[in-house]
Amino acid sequence: MPDGPTITTIAEHAGVSIASVSRVLNGLPTRPETERKVMRAADELGYVRNAVARSLKSRRTHQIAFAMADIGNPVYLAMVRQIQPVLKTAGYRLVLHSTDAVVADEIDVLRSLGERYVDGLIMSPIRVTDDHLKMIENARAPVVIIGLVPDGTAVDNVRADSREGVRLAVGHLHERGRRRIGFLNGPLDTVPGAARDAAFREALEECGLPYDPALVEVGDFYREAGAQAARRLLERDGDVDALMCANDLIALGALDVLRQYGKRVPQDVAVVGMDDTDLAAASWPTLTSVSLGSAERGRAAAQLLLARLEDGGRAPTVVTVPPRLIVRESTLETS
Amino acid sequence: MPDGPTITTIAEHAGVSIASVSRVLNGLPTRPETERKVMRAADELGYVRNAVARSLKSRRTHQIAFAMADIGNPVYLAMVRQIQPVLKTAGYRLVLHSTDAVVADEIDVLRSLGERYVDGLIMSPIRVTDDHLKMIENARAPVVIIGLVPDGTAVDNVRADSREGVRLAVGHLHERGRRRIGFLNGPLDTVPGAARDAAFREALEECGLPYDPALVEVGDFYREAGAQAARRLLERDGDVDALMCANDLIALGALDVLRQYGKRVPQDVAVVGMDDTDLAAASWPTLTSVSLGSAERGRAAAQLLLARLEDGGRAPTVVTVPPRLIVRESTLETS
DNA sequence: GCCAGCACAGTAAACGTTTACAGTACGGCT
DNA sequence: AGCCGTACTGTAAACGTTTACTGTGCTGGC
After folding, report:
1. Same domain, B73 and B18
2. Residue A214's pLDDT band (boundaries 50, 70, 90)?
3. Both A304 and A207 in a single domain?
4. Closest to A93 (Cβ–Cβ): which among B95, B114, B278?
5. pLDDT in tens, B195-225
6. Do residue A249 and residue A183 come from a single domain?
7. Same domain for B178 and B119?
8. Which residues of the protein have their beta carbon within 7 Å of strand C?
9. B208 three-class SS
10. Domain count of chain B?
11. Are residues A172 and A280 in the same domain?
12. Where in this chain does the record put each HTH lacI-type domain (chains A, B) (predicted)?
């Protein structure tokens, strides 16, 4: 792997100065004769621009980072799938960070922005601490946050409306005659966990149903955790007729357990998931799920970031993506 | 977003030369007094090393690229999930490229290696042309290929054994008494498509079954394409008692169609997928699938690349990951 | 008392670009 | 013929590091 040719090599071969080479390569006005010489030399030597040197001088890396908790989570996957093409067409590369939902790792990513290896960052923190906020506002490069941040935070922000999402789901269950609606949530100290908890209480109230702590279980956002939570709930109260799950993975875990307990879905227990991941359409029975617009949020975040890179002066923007209820077999008696 | 402090700023504040600053920052022997001054200035100013300048001088970017056809494909996802932590612990960042299975895009990624924005590349090309091979062997940075390349190609290579995988699956179907085994494949001009086609013929022969072109359909590796292929097959021949699918997505599409045609799975038709993605365990019925070890292949590729970065002189290595048959409901009558 | 050797610290060059500025050649105008 | 403007091209500095080499002041041995 011998060292490739540099602008200097080309200049020698073409018999011109490195400045001329650079100008030709960048399409600046040049005498046709010179241009030809340079292009010829470049072709013959198989020249490729050194991106690092270029970045150093131009202060642009044409890279953007996306930091999420876990690539395994289909929600983030859906985001990446949208972010990638948007960035690609704008001429940016995508650098991926998986923080495993560890706050210290997220802080680390934020700090590493100072290394200037990317031009900007899209981040979807699962917990938002004051440290985060401070670092985000003072970050050395533009940042877009996917998720809820306190109002007034000076940062571009893309939000899902999980409150409305939970209302849609609970409303749907209520309409279909369900009255003892269980709730399987993720950790309350996470942003989505807290939001969904508050939303669930609200939604019950709107339907005129009482909030019964015995029907609520808190676990984690994984399938196995969902199964465990469902088991705990069923052991305590065999009479639930619906399960609202904070997550499709939790819902899949719940489906497994319901099957073990001989409960028919949806006849005995209706189940609603959240995020409308690919798994929802593939499960048995297919899973009614609240789409929080992961794909749209990803795309919006990428576009916000590009807009800010264009114009650093624009006011921070908040985009809220509306939820949609995708009804499938797990809540439809008739199926 | 004011410009951050550089090594020069720190040198001024600490009253030393930039060389000393650099030495302290890199842990080279320094008088304690000097070290203290530098560290203090660095802390006060919130200094962060500029990764770009560093890379230019050191010729290391600590970035590695992974190029795949489509992040949406759970197989690649499984790879990314393994690659990411391996690289992270070794101090490398992950740059993602999605080529949409367009050969020109893959060539582009290969060429862009000359820009030296990464130290190495892991690539999983879906079609391997001579152009690819030539560029891969002459690449300006170490490359690891996930997938089949011609024997003797001078490149680190991680392979699945889809031949053996198909044999496992067909053998399993045969053992369970299936005799009219259909085959839903992806494009024959792709590496996996061609390999699976050859393997299917071989496997039938081993079982003493005839190869019947009427039982074979070629489509694409997507769910919808799988559904269409299944439909074509069923319209032509209502008597298949098993479907071997080149892919879990194809298998899911086939399950949809079988349901529409009133065929029970597995009683009337047994179905086997391939890749053992998350979807296989979530589907209805759960899907028997051949695991080609996507996760292991990802991890192996990352490790091979790291090994080569350590020692550029080592001989090209080929790692073959053995397949495993994961039996689930879609082939088990008793369920 | 002198010099060798040591332990640092500083100077400057280099990595490969981009770009401000200075220089040159030439054609056309007066 | 002299001058000016035009249209380039070349020189050199800069981006922020790392590092080879040179310099300096001290310690210790004779």
Report:
1. no
2. very high
3. no
4. B95
5. 999 999 999 999 999 999 999 999 999 999 9
6. yes
7. no
8. A 3, 6-8, 18-19, 21-23, 25-26, 47, 49-50, 53-54, 56-58; B 15-20, 23, 29-31, 33-34, 53, 56-57, 59
9. coil
10. 3
11. yes
12. 5-58
The two tokens of residue B312 are 């550029």
Q: Indicate whether A213 belongs to any domain.
A: yes
Beta carbons of A279 and B284 less than 8 Å apart: no
- The CATH number for B35's domain is 1.10.260.40
Reported as type and span, the H/E element at residue A207 is helix A191-207
Asked if A175 and A236 sit in the same domain, the reply is yes
Identify whether B194 is part of a domain: yes
CA distance A56 to chain B (A): 6
* Contact criterion met (CB < 8 Å) for B96 and A94: yes
Amino acid of residue A124: S
pLDDT in tens, A59-110: 999 999 999 988 878 899 999 999 999 999 999 999 999 998 888 899 999 9
- A124 with A23, same domain: the answer is no
Q: Which residue of A has its CA nearest to B141?
A: A1
pLDDT digits (tens, 9 = 90+) for A110-120: 999 999 999 99
What is the domain-level CATH number for residue A284?
Answer: 3.40.50.2300
- Which nucleotide's C1' sits nearest to the alpha carbon of A54? C17
Q: What is the mean pLDDT of chain B?
A: 94
Nucleotides in chain D with any atom closer than 7 Å to protein CB: 7-12, 14-20
pLDDT for the residue A22: 97
Between CA B132 and C1' C16 the distance (Å) reads: 28
Among chain B residues, CA nearest to A139: B1
DSSP string covering B191-206, please? HHHHHHHHHHHHHHHH
pLDDT digits over B39-65, tens only?
999 999 999 999 999 999 999 999 999
Backbone angles phi, psi at A316, to 5 degrees: -55, 135
Residue range(s) defining the domain that contains residue A41:
7-49
- Across the beta sheet with B324-326, the strand order is B216-218, B181-185, B242-245, B270-274, B288-291, B324-326
Q: Token match 């939001």: residue?
A: A195
Query: Nearest nucleotide to A18 by CA–C1' distance?
Result: D10
Q: Does residue B2 have a pLDDT over 80?
A: no
Nucleotide nearest B17, CA–C1', reads C10
One-letter amino acid at A36 equals R
Report how far residue A297's alpha carbon sits from residue A318's, in angstroms, rounded to the nearest whole number. 11
In a domain, A178, yes or no: yes
Question: Confidence band (pLDDT; 50, 70, 90) for A50?
Answer: very high
Residue B37 lies in a domain: yes
**Bases along strand C below 7 A from a protein CB:** 7-12, 14-20
